[in-house]
Write a structure and sequence with these properties.
The complex is a heterodimer of chains A (117) and B (115). Chain A is mainly beta and 117 residues long. Chain A is 0% helix and 47% strand. In chain A, strands 2, 4, 5, 6, 9, 10 and 11 form a seven-stranded mixed beta sheet that branches. A four-stranded antiparallel beta sheet of chain A has the order 1-3-8-7, with no helix packed on it. Chain B starts with a strand and ends with a strand.
Chain lengths: 117, 115
Amino acid sequence: GAGVSQTPSNKVTEKGKYVELRCDPISGHTALYWYRQSLGQGPEFLIYFQGTGAADDSGLPNDRFFAVRPEGSVSTLKIQRTERGDSAVYLCASSPPGLAGGSGELFFGEGSRLTVL
Amino acid sequence: AQTVTQSQPEMSVQEAETVTLSCTYDTSESDYYLFWYKQPPSRQMILVIRQEAYKQQNATENRFSVNFQKAAKSFSLKISDSQLGDAAMYFCAYRAQGGSEKLVFGKGTKLTVNP
């Protein structure tokens, strides 16, 4: 597709359940980012992939959160044993290779709103 | 660690008038990018304008311009001839060259445009 695609758009789950959120980046973009945006706040960095590998996972809040990008394209954010505090919009973004000399811009999807009851 | 501060949680402007949104940041890097993103209710972040730190000239994009003061670490956004469609959350963001190159966001400013 032309833009970053995220599914599902909305997800309601119960406390303790397992959740997967999917991100399909713009074709050819090697860098992929996950952010979490709580109500009334700016997006907070979770994890960054360059190709298939997680280059920076310093933003993951705890070991219940995990993300993969096995073929260097689609990524899945996985949340185990969900808690009410995990409720937020999860944003995915991608960017083309070669930051230096490029625009530096990240291209965002519309996010997945997760509600944990 | 880099931080971005937006000191105005909410701002309002009359249609056709001008408004300035403030942003300051903290970094020890010399090469970086600064951005203003707009987030309407659809949730998608839309790039409004960007500035490369090595450029002294302030960026402009139609009705949007910035006042970039590198020494003061200030990066304000000016919206001229405000339109109803400009109403949204506006986020200032910083991105260093090198490292993870992640975007660091401020907490945002909610802009209301009054007809």
